[in-house]
Amino acid sequence: MGFFEIIGFAVILYYTVQVMLWIILDCDIMLYFKTQWGKPITILKGKVVWITGASSGIGRELAKQLSKNGIRLVLSGRNIKDLEAAKVECMNFSKGQLKSKDILILPFDMLDLDFHHEAFKRVITHFGDFHILVNNAGRSQRAEWNKIDMNVDRELFELDVFSVVHLSRIAVTYFETNNIKGQLAVTSSVAGLFGVPNSASYTGAKHALHGYFEALRTEKRIIKVNLFCPGPTFSNFLQESFVETQGDKYNQRVSSTDRRMSTERCAYLFAVALANNINLSWSGIFPINMILYVGLYYPNIANILMSMGVSKLFGKVRDSR
């Protein structure tokens, strides 16, 4: 076999293996390798991690994953009863590694920007330190593009973007003032990487978050920035999703027969991404992984596929059918 034949064979083998991984894996390749050979989640033990939107869904499961590894927690959300239940679960998952004082319940509404500074003071007063902010609070959307009221766009951006940026700026200022190599994480979405149908405001908000936090990463290299983008996941997010009319909610439940990733698996992958400081990572069962790789790295191929009607298939995948 000649030199060029060997090169050609290597290229074919490389892309064959890559496509197979896109099909087999439930996350991006880098994140998968970190689950096998990266730093363990226990490397974060002793740090203080503040999770917003921790009363349910991915935020609550992430708290449980971290508590199993002895990581001190601040749990925030609007529903104090759900936060108290989450704390009990975390205490049980920690198997004695965490005491009650190691998990602070801090209920507040992310839209109450005036309270952000007070909330931050309470965290520092309680723990005397702070290391990682996980911006997980937010709401999704189901609406037709041209029927969305502009007030919905504004309301969604206020919650999913501006409140997140505001709290994060307080954290960055604290890290800089105290010369701490802090870490900011954002629960984004596959909608932050790819235009998702029937979620225009939500897609726009997630893209905006990527812009804000990628700018932060390049501007302040001392700050670690992690963007985690889950695909369809089992949680109660559909009930609270925005629609096209202000004040209304989608108010539908996720079905147990849907093709979605379990919240536990998603949270575990998120925890691995935090421990290994992965800039950008995503999760999702087939065909989410393949769609993202093609869309991000082979946009011309993606455009051809979209012109062939694949966008309808993507809509079905997003709705887990």
Automatic annotation (TrEMBL):
Annotated protein name in UniProt: Dehydrogenase/reductase SDR family member 7
InterPro entries per UniProt:
NAD(P)-bd_dom_sf, Sc_DH/Rdtase_CS, SDR_fam, SDR_family_member_7
Molecular function via GO: oxidoreductase activity
The transmembrane segments are 6-25, 266-285, 291-314
Per UniProt, the keywords (alphabetical) are:
Membrane, Oxidoreductase, Transmembrane, Transmembrane helix
Recorded source organism is: Chironomus riparius
Task: Determine the domain of life of the protein's source.
Answer: Eukaryota
